[in-house]
Amino acid sequence: MRIGLLTEGGYPYAGGEAGLWCDRLVRGLAQHDFDLYALARDREQEEAGLLALPPQVRRVRTARLWTDAGSEDGVRGGALGRRARRRFATLYQELASAVVHGAGFEAAGEGSGGAGGALGVRGAPVEADRFATALYGLAELARDEGPLHVALRSETAVRILERACRAPGALRAARAARVPDLLVCAGHIERALRPLSLDWYADPHEGEAAGGLGSVDLCHATSGGAAALPGLLAKRFHGVPLLVTEYGVRLRAQYLAAGDAELSAPVRALLASFHGLLAAEVYRQATVITPGDAHARRWQERCGADRAKMRTVHPGMDASRFAEVGEREEPGEPGTLVWVGRVEPAKDLISLLHAFAEIRKEEPEARLRIVETMPVRPGPAEAGTYLGHCKALAAQLFPDEAAGMHAVGENPVSFEELGDPGASDLAEVYGAGSVVVLSSVVEGFPVSLVEAMFCGRATVSTDVGAVVEAIGGTGLVVPPRNPRALAEACVALLRDSGRRERLGAAARARALELFTVEQNVAAFHSIYLDIVSHCPVRRDAMDDAGDPLPFSHPAEAHVPGHWAARTSGPSRLPSWAPSAEGGRREQLAGVSQGGGEGRA
Cα–Cα distance between 92 and 152 in angstroms, integer? Predict the structure, then answer.
């Protein structure tokens, strides 16, 4: 089987959790061939280079999303002709009209959406159909006439957006858009639609060098958004089935990123609607959708995903690195709490520090180790300010303590970075603690909790994201933003070593059963076979001269419908049976219904 793996900002570039699970997947399925189609988000990613790829990777195609349009590999140059410009204006007007009428993701400031409110799909299906028609029309225009990057940023595109925003029925926030807002919005839409202009969709019969996604048996998009857009076009042009995997919902990440980027309200509203419509189309066209947990599944369902297409596949993690610590009988340092992760406001370390103050009242010898796995980049970033605020609060709540008059004072709270002398290895960090704590107010899949489970450690965590799904009944769960409840749960485990051991053993068994690389690879292997068996790509066999071979497919391959579909009557008739048989089937159904009414 030949798989087209579609990525954005991850594999095969070095670094990132998404790159790790993709690399493990490719290496675990050595019996299949992989073609990699990667979109790079920034310069740093490209400068980091590519990972060492296994031999089953036959081809690597890359494109840039961070450069000026037209300068990256794979995007052809040139401007559109007069007839093509008129065609573009018609299609872009349809796209803009669907976006500004808000038939997508609930935008900031609209109704109950707000900055942190409930979000979801809104609007009539007709707007989603208009968006899809315009999207595929633009893709066909790019295939026939050339790239669209100039047209998508042109004055024509901006004027079309402006007219759409002023039209009746437009989003309230979009009606306030000014020219600078429209320019920013047009730039974001151009970057999102840049895969339309790539040369990845050549006909598979044009030769091995030209055959792109049309030559694969299955497209596997490792996220939604721009990464899945080539898969949509491969299905549109060549009938290739699409599998979409999201371990972090791309639509949610884009909404949060728009808020962090300090974009204006009109821009946020327009981009939220655009990405919502794109996500809904991706979910509608996907053959199978594989969320990583119930939290991601709920987001996808709210954004229009069909529940019948969804199969949860938990992330696969390398358990071998934690095996030595997990098999130890040592309980860890007594009275030590461990927190591991990236220091940012969503992790709510402020509540953790206040909870630890309550813990110290009950357990004066308790200690808290805060280990940062992804240090903040230099600069006045919000996360860096947050780390400084946490350190200042810890110094205020817990003055340095000394065992005697001649001893050096020491703070019971330590801030460390992974790789420091006392925290050189992640497994040893977890193994040094008696209890592992997670205090987040926003969380997707809790990687740190699963790592602690592999190490056989009891956990106390807040009920956010997929926490309950991950730990099951192997740890204590408390409400978020509740320092007192967090403190009481930690004290209960610190005082009961037997309970900690039982929970730790159960947690390790659960992690080994559900969250290993082996189970992840086996699940995707089964899904690949299932998709290809039910949705094969129909291609005409060609001879050495490039001419189609007659009788290369049996006649049965061209018969639509199911061969033996069950009916309401006693007979089994094919769905393609002639009308007489259809009338007979309806007659049998009517007799059956009439008999039922008589008995009633």
Answer: 8
